[in-house]
Design brief:
- It is a single chain.
- The chain is of the alpha/beta class and 112 residues long.
- It has a single domain (2-111), classed as Rossmann fold.
- Helix content is 48%, strand content 20%.
- The chain contains five helices and four strands.
- It has a two-stranded parallel ribbon.
- Helix 2 (27-46) links the parallel strand 1 and strand 2.
- The longest helix has 20 residues, at 27-46.
- The protein starts with a helix and ends with a strand.
Length: 112
């Protein structure tokens, strides 16, 4: 979806991966995320897209950090991937997608 929109609007693609901040940073998780971002950036660049990747060690909630990143990078449109969660999961962890949808300053496309 991001590729189609970037092509249609001659836009850059920014990919954000957020990982939790903790006293003991999870090095294998961070290294895996960096590897995935590097691979994705190479693929998109080779396909002719301008792409920036961002690995963010979260300081707030995922939703708050994502809304702040959208504002800081002046993102024109956010494509947000969601997954199905149980009602209990939403109750215990909150709904990141709902927070972002209600607080973001740009249009959002939600992809399941």
């Amino acid at each position: 979806m991001a590729e189609a929109h970037a092509k249609a609007f001659n836009a850059e693609i920014h990919v954000f991966t957020l990982t939790a901040h903790s006293p003991e940073l999870n090095t294998p998780e961070i290294e895996a995320a960096e590897g995935e971002l590097k691979s994705l950036k190479e693929r998109l660049t080779n396909a002719g897209f301008v792409c920036e990747t961002h690995l963010v060690i979260r300081s707030l909630t995922q939703g708050e950090d994502l809304v702040n990143l959208v504002r800081e990078h002046k993102i024109d449109e956010l494509i947000l991937g969601v997954r199905k969660r149980s009602r209990v999961g939403k109750f215990l962890m909150g709904s990141t997608a709902q927070f972002v949808i209600l607080n973001s300053e740009c249009p959002i496309v939600v992809v399941k």
